[in-house]
C-alpha cells in the first residue's frame, strides 16, 4: 500500500504535485479559512508526509501524537511555526526549499522601502479625488543618499543589500552572525549594536529568523531609538515585532511610515492595532507571491518527499538527527 501524502493549502495547481502519485496516495486539503488545530490533528493521524506552507503550524504535542508521520516538507524557507529539533526527537524529518523565493522577497522589500519613503500609498488616490501635489503634501524622501539599515544578513538580507547598492544609499548592517564570518565590504558597514544603527537610519528593514532571542525583540525600546521621520519594513516574520509598539511608533512618532507584509496572526484580526494606522502600508504576506517563486517552492517540496520515500538524500533537510529517532 502506498503511503499517504497530504498537501495542505497547496500554493499551485494539483498538476504541480503530480509526481507524488508515483510513490504515494496524494490528498489535497484546501481550508476555507486559517487552518485549525483540529484539522491538523485529523490530517496527521493518517498521513505519512505533509507538504505545508508558512500558514500551517504544527505543535510539539501534535508531533508527538502523529506516530505515523515521517516527513514535513515546507514550501519555501525554513518553518518558524514548527520546532524542528523536537520533530527530530519524534523521528520526523523536516525539509524546506532554501532560495526558492529569496530573490522574489528581496525585490519586493526594495519596492516597499521606496514606497514607504515616497509615501506611494498616499499618492495613488489623489488624481481620482481631484487633487494634485503641493509643497506641503506628498513630499517623499530620496533613496539616493539615504541611510538604510539591514537587520539580518542571511540569504534574503544579502540580496536586499545587493539590490540597494546601485541606488547610491548608505548601508548599515546589524548581523552578529554574519559579522563573525564575513570580511569587510566597501559597499556597506557593519554595526555592533542596534543602538548604534537605529538613530542614523532613514529606513530599517528586518531580515532575521525567529528564535528565542529574536521573538518580539523589535519592541517599544528599539522603536523609540529610530530617527524621527524614518520608516520601518518587515517582510521577514510577524513574530519578530511587537505590533502594539509598532502601532504606537506610527501614531506618536518617531516613524513616518511602515510597510508590513507579515503579522503575528495571519490574516490579521480586526483588533490588530496596525489596522488603525493610516501610515501603515499593509500587505497580505505577498513578498514571495509570484508564479515563478511558488512553482520553485512546490517543486522543491515534491523533490524532498520523493527523495524520502526513495531512500535518497533529502534536499533541504533541516534535522539530520531525525534518523536516530525513527518510530
Automatic annotation (TrEMBL):
The keyword GTP-binding does not apply. GO terms for molecular function: glyoxylate reductase (NADPH) activity; hydroxypyruvate reductase [NAD(P)H] activity; NAD binding. Keywords: NAD, Oxidoreductase. One of its GO terms (cellular component) is cytosol. The keyword Nucleus does not apply. InterPro entries: D-isomer_2-hydroxyacid_DH (IPR050223), D-isomer_2_OHA_DH_cat_dom (IPR006139), D-isomer_DH_CS (IPR029753), D-isomer_DH_CS1 (IPR029752), D-isomer_DH_NAD-bd (IPR006140), NAD(P)-bd_dom_sf (IPR036291). Residues 110-287 form the D-isomer specific 2-hydroxyacid dehydrogenase NAD-binding domain. Residues 19-318 form the D-isomer specific 2-hydroxyacid dehydrogenase catalytic domain. Belongs to the D-isomer specific 2-hydroxyacid dehydrogenase family. PANTHER family: 2-HYDROXYACID DEHYDROGENASE YGL185C-RELATED, 2-HYDROXYACID DEHYDROGENASE-RELATED. This is 3-phosphoglycerate dehydrogenase. It comes from Pyramidobacter porci.
